[in-house]
């Protein structure tokens, strides 16, 4: 038999009913070698090659795939249907009138997307074709990266990037370690240490590596960068030997080898299965509130279009009921038309009217909006005020689809560490058995000037305490993951040189650890290095102490502690543990707990980050038990993390408390000013942090999130232990609602002094109880609602002890509440990514905790202070601009098509077009598109400095106020009014048959051209009247568009074009302009069209001005220097109760410059257009 029964049994147990779910694992054969017979069945699995594909299209599928994506957009699909109808049936307008604008929009979008995809292809090819070195048959072979296969052994040299995900087999360093930077993955520039498999770390030649006979069993690819579970099986002469593999053995694609000459490693995940590729897959699409409003308006206009077509179709058949009107001599029907069924005729006519009026749907609006968003996003990137010289970074825009959403934010969720604070740790003090030690300031490895001596407070320990003190210092020198560099150059800066002497430089992925090790250095204990699994420290007597590092129980956010097991040179075994007070105190059995706890609480109230340190002496037997526990958990392929957590839990117990440390994380520059500005702008700021309550609360007071008069409401585990969650919630609810009388805080200004300011503090455990209440409690169903009601009435909320997932749950909870507010999340670390992706707008800070947040966000900024300008200035401008763009597009299309509708009543509903084909086609593409695009890019209705100085102006545009239904209806009615004035004005002026000076009569094309001329000038002047910020570009584009229209009309009608079958516009425009009455009617009709809007604005500004309008008026008065004057508050619109006093006091006598400005503009327009 080819296979013995034991092998068959192993296979069946693995793939069918085994205790581990083997479907979720893969077997990799190192060097593509089969395992020895009888040990393992050789089943070669199929894995993808190492080709990376970030592109969306191929050469063959670009056109069909891109067309499919574009025609999923309602407006494009609608115009395609209209175009097809024009091709199929006899319609009044040429198919070109619909086809050309559609073709233009589709082509521009396809070119943009095709170019972006071509760049992606180019980038992919450069990566896929780069050379890699592979060990084959004892020799190094060079091949392209894309040809790499799972199981290949790869040679990587210093400063080269890893071509795929690899398991480290050996390195040029004796201890089998290598140093790696993962900046391209998570932005952390620090050197991380990775470890080779113990059994292969001595193999340093190609022949030795080729002699390895082993397989790797590991989990299937998954995107978590920091998680990996596997084991390696070596086939020696005897039984196979299994060794555990973890994330410390896994080198990720995209990371770079540093300070190590070369390494040998085996490929386990390739191509699109690497962790980097899995992490870069597209995020869910976010849609802005403006886009939703646009789609709603589109539906309304579609209904208007259908109703127009139905009315005209019905009226046509009513009008043709009279036989004399049915077939006039100049329009007799053919025999086929007479015999056609009336329903078919009516449907054909309905479609013809749909085609005639279809321009009311603005197809070019989508392309204009896309261009506006794309080009507008560069203003954020070009903003020099948002450039950080220290980091050398500018603000980044990862998606331009949400620009206007920055002007609509109601809730801001912010991380604390690294976002509000600098994540720049400064060692303040340590407390050992109640004795406090305070060295001079040490900040992230840099000793501050003048710190030559050591300052200690309350240091009078006895002999026992002295031993405890040294044990505490040793614990902090040993319990960490800090690396030591000698005179290392990092990012071009030479570190480690201090006062002319060469010293060591500490680097770590955690700034806290560097601060603690540096603190110990100032207190006499210096950590030197980790060499050959031995940690060396220099004590106060300048003696080197060596400790063998046996185990590291790594830190994780659930346990909130880390431990090491070491053996001293005398043979004693110790477990040293450091972590958060909540993670250490419950595990302590002795030590001066009360004194240390009091000091920890004191430091937390001061806003310092505290850690507790404890130890446990181990006997040899206890250590053997620990080893068995850990090895059993490490070798597990399934649920390894869970089993390790259980093992750690059993090991880290019966601890003796040594002391605590305090580290300060300073508040970022202008963080308090930014939060205060956001409050004034009407936004609610929530701080979501993993820190303890006291530390976080102190930071909140320092950053002005809480004020001294803020009444703090606590919803914490401590309180819910004393009384039930149900009672606590109802107590808090009664407290806030009694004060606010049932009103939510949104109904009045958060700045009013006559109401109590509430701040809520909630912790992670209580939040879980609120979100997942117990089923036994019958009243538990409405906990969420009560919690939300309390939050609505609080000016600020602090959520502490939050897990990353809970941060996202909080954001989701607020997003889904009945008001559906717009949320913004801002953070700097990997633990903030979930809430950044969940919020409507996600902002990443380019901080010290890596770049995951910046990479996954919609926008990235260097510092928290830049959020103020991004929201109050850029967000404000973006929203103002795009709301005008959307309303204006619908307005100008109503003006355009409504005269066409009215014209049908005067042409026997014969579907005769009012405008020429060229005008129909170019109206939205050329004549009226550039002015509104430019307006939507550079308009500034208020000076930038004023917006920064007076955050309350942000409230004027809150809750999508400029795209509400009343304003939309006003713009639509204004368009209908203008259309009626244009059409009937021209109609009554045409009543005089001898209209021209030589007695010539005007025809229908001249009538249509007259209406179209008034239309183009009216809608362009309307935009000019709405423009507050004039530059030479505005003048050039607005007046240039009008000149282009005139020049085009003269050329179109002044030349006999050979490609036209008929030239109905020949000499029409010139003939119209040769008539004096035509000039007069153009000027009168433009003035009559614009007058109501001007009058309405003048009256509204005089009687009911908004805060924005008051400041515009005052800024005109001060000739643009208003921002230099401080009392902007006096210009704010008074409360509704004070409206009856509007005319009193100084306001009555103050000039209204805006009113004068409107009048001047009108006078200018009239005088400019008078012949």
Give a summary of the structure in a few sentences.
It is built from 39 helices and 40 strands. By secondary structure, it is α+β, with helices and mostly antiparallel strands. Helix 4 (95-128) packs parallel to helix 12 (363-381), helix 28 (866-903) runs parallel beside helix 32 and helix 32 packs antiparallel against helix 33.
First-last Cα distance: 107 Å
Largest sheet: 12 strands, mixed
Number of helices: 39
CATH topology of the domain at 428-440 and 463-485 and 504-665: Calcium-transporting ATPase, cytoplasmic domain N
Number of strands: 40
Cofactor: Mg(2+)
Protein name: Phospholipid-transporting ATPase
EC number: 7.6.2.1
Organism: Sparus aurata (Gilthead sea bream)
SSE blueprint:
Blueprint: H1 5-17, E1 25-29, H2 62-70, H3 74-88, H4 95-128, E2 131-136, E3 139-144, E4 153-157, E5 165-171, E6 177-181, H5 183-186, E7 192-195, H6 206-210, E8 214-219, E9 230-234, E10 241-245, E11 250-251, E12 256-258, E13 262-269, H7 275-279, H8 289-319, H9 323-326, H10 335-339, H11 342-357, H12 363-381, E14 396-397, E15 411-414, E16 421-432, E17 435-437, E18 442-443, E19 446-447, H13 463-478, E20 483-486, E21 489-490, E22 493-494, E23 497-498, E24 501-502, E25 504-507, H14 511-522, E26 526-531, E27 534-538, E28 544-553, E29 561-567, E30 573-579, H15 581-584, E31 588-590, H16 593-605, E32 609-618, H17 620-635, H18 640-651, E33 655-667, H19 671-680, E34 684-688, H20 693-702, E35 711-715, H21 717-722, H22 725-740, E36 758-763, H23 764-771, H24 783-792, E37 796-800, H25 804-815, E38 823-827, H26 833-838, E39 841-845, H27 852-856, E40 859-861, H28 866-903, H29 917-927, H30 929-938, H31 944-949, H32 965-989, H33 1004-1026, H34 1032-1054, H35 1068-1073, H36 1076-1103, H37 1107-1117, H38 1145-1149, H39 1153-1169
Parallel strand pairs: 15-34, 15-38, 31-33, 34-37, 35-36, 36-37, 38-39, 39-40
Antiparallel strand pairs: 1-8, 2-3, 2-4, 4-13, 5-11, 5-13, 6-7, 6-12, 8-9, 9-10, 14-40, 16-17, 16-18, 16-33, 18-19, 20-25, 21-22, 23-24, 26-27, 27-28, 28-29, 29-30, 30-32, 32-33
């Amino acid at each position: 038999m080819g296979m013995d029964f034991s092998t068959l049994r192993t296979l069946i147990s693995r793939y069918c009913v085994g205790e581990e779910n083997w479907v979720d694992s893969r077997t990799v054969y190192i060097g593509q070698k089969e395992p020895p017979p009888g040990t393992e069945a050789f089943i070669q699995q199929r894995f993808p090659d190492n080709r990376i594909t970030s592109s969306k299209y191929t050469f063959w599928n670009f056109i069909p795939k891109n067309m499919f994506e574009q025609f999923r957009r309602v407006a494009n699909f609608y115009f395609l249907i209209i175009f097809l109808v024009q091709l199929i049936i006899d319609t009044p307008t040429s198919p070109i009138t619909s086809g050309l604008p559609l073709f233009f929009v589709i082509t521009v979008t396809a070119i943009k997307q095709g170019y972006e995809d071509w760049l992606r292809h180019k980038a992919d090819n450069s990566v896929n074709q780069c050379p890699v070195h592979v060990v084959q048959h004892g020799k190094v072979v060079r091949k392209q990266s894309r040809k790499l296969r799972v199981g290949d052994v790869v040679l990587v040299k210093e400063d080269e990037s890893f071509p795929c995900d690899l398991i480290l087999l050996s390195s040029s360093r004796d201890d089998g370690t290598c140093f790696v930077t993962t900046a391209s993955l998570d932005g952390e520039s620090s050197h991380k240490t990775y470890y080779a498999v113990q059994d292969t770390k001595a193999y340093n030649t190609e022949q030795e590596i080729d002699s390895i006979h082993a397989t790797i069993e590991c989990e299937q690819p998954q995107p978590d960068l920091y998680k990996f579970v596997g084991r390696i099986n070596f086939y020696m002469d005897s039984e196979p030997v299994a060794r555990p593999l973890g994330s410390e053995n896994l080198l990720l694609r995209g990371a770079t080898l540093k300070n190590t000459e070369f390494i040998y490693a085996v490929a386990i995940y390739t191509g699109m299965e690497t962790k980097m590729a899995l992490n870069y897959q597209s995020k869910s699409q976010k849609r802005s509130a403006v886009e939703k409003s646009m789609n709603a308006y589109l539906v309304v206009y579609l209904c208007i279009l259908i109703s127009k077509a139905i009315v005209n179709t019905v009226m046509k058949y009513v009008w043709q009921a009279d036989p004399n009107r049915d077939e006039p001599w100049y329009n007799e029907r053919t025999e086929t038309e007479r015999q056609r069924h009336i329903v078919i005729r009516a449907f054909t006519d309905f479609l013809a009217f749909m085609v005639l009026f279809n321009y009311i749907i603005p197809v070019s609006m989508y392309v204009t909006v896309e261009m506006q968003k794309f080009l507008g996003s560069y203003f954020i990137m070009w903003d020099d005020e948002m450039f950080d010289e220290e980091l050398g970074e500018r603000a980044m825009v990862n998606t331009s689809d949400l620009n206007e959403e920055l002007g609509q934010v109601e809730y801001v969720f912010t991380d604390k560490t690294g976002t509000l604070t600098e994540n720049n740790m400064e060692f303040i003090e340590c407390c050992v058995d109640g004795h406090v030690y305070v060295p001079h300031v040490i900040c992230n490895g840099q000793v501050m000037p003048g710190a030559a001596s050591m300052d200690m407070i309350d240091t009078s320990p006895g002999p026992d305490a002295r031993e405890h003190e040294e044990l505490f210092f040793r614990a902090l020198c040993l319990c960490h993951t800090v690396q030591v560099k000698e005179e290392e150059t990092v990012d071009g800066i030479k570190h480690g040189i201090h006062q002319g002497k060469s010293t060591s430089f500490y680097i770590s992925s955690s700034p806290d650890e560097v601060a603690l090790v540096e603190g110990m250095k100032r207190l006499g204990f210096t950590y030197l290095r980790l060499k050959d699994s031995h940690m060396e420290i220099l004590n106060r007597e300048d003696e080197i102490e060596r400790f063998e590092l046996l185990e590291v129980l790594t830190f994780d956010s659930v346990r909130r502690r880390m431990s090491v097991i070491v053996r001293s040179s005398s043979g004693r075994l110790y477990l040293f543990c450091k972590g958060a007070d909540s993670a250490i105190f419950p595990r302590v059995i002795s030590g001066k707990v009360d004194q240390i706890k009091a000091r920890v609480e004191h430091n937390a109230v001061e806003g310092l980050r505290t850690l507790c340190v404890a130890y446990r002496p181990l006997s040899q037997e206890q250590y053997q038990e620990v080893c068995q526990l850990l090895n059993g958990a490490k070798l597990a392929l399934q649920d390894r993390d869970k089993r390790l957590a259980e093992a750690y839990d059993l090991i880290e117990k019966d601890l003796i408390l040594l002391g605590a440390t305090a580290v300060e994380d300073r508040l970022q520059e202008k963080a308090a000013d930014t939060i205060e500005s956001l409050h004034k702008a009407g936004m609610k700021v929530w701080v979501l942090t993993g820190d303890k309550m006291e530390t976080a609360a102190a930071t909140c007071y320092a950053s002005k999130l809480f004020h001294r008069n803020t009444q703090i409401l606590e919803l914490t585990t401590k309180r819910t232990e004393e009384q039930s969650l149900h009672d606590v919630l109802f107590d808090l609810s009664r407290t806030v609602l009694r004060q606010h009388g049932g009103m939510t805080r949104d109904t009045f200004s958060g700045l009013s002094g006559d109401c109590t300011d509430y701040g809520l503090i909630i912790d992670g455990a209580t939040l879980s109880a609120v979100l997942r209440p117990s089923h036994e409690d019958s009243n538990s169903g409405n906990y969420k609602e009560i919690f939300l009601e309390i939050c609505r009435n609080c000016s600020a909320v602090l959520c502490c002890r939050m897990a990353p997932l809970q941060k996202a749950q909080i954001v989701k909870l607020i997003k889904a509440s009945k008001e559906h507010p717009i949320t913004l999340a801002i953070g700097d670390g990997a633990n903030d990514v979930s809430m950044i992706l969940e919020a409507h707008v996600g902002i990443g800070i380019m901080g010290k905790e890596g770049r995951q947040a910046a990479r996954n966000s919609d926008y990235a900024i260097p510092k928290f202070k830049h959020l103020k300008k991004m929201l109050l200035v850029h967000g404000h401008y973006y929203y103002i601009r795009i709301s005008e763009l959307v309303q204006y597009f619908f307005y100008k299309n109503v003006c355009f098509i409504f005269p066409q509708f009215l014209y049908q009543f005067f042409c026997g509903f014969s579907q005769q077009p009012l405008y020429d084909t060229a005008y129909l086609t170019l109206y939205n593409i050329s004549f009226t598109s550039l002015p509104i695009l430019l307006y939507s890019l550079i308009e500034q209705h208020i000076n930038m400095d004023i917006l920064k100085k007076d955050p309350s102006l942000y409230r004027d545009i809150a809750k999508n106020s400029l795209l509400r239904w009343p304003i939309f209806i006003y713009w639509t009615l204004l368009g209908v009014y203008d259309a009626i004035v244009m059409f009937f004005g021209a109609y009554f002026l045409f009543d005089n048959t001898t209209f021209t000076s030589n007695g010539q009569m005007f025809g229908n094309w001249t009538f249509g051209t007259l209406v179209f001329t008034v239309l183009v000038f009216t809608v362009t002047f309307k935009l000019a009247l709405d423009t507050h910020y004039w530059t030479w570009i505005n003048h050039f584009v607005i007046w240039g568009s009008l000149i282009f229209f005139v020049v085009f009309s003269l050329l179109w009608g002044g030349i006999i074009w050979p490609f036209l079958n008929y030239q109905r516009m020949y000499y029409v425009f010139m003939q119209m302009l040769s008539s004096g009455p035509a000039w007069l009617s153009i000027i009168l009709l433009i003035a009559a069209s614009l007058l109501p809007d001007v009058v309405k604005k003048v009256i509204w500004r005089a009687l009911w001005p908004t805060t924005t309008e008051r400041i515009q008026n005052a800024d005109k008065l001060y000739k643009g220097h208003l921002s230099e004057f401080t009392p902007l508050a006096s210009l704010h619109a008074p409360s509704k109760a004070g409206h009856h006093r509007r005319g009193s006091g100084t306001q009555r006598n103050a000039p209204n410059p805006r009113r004068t400005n409107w009048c001047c503009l009108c006078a200018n327009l009239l005088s400019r257009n008078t012949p």
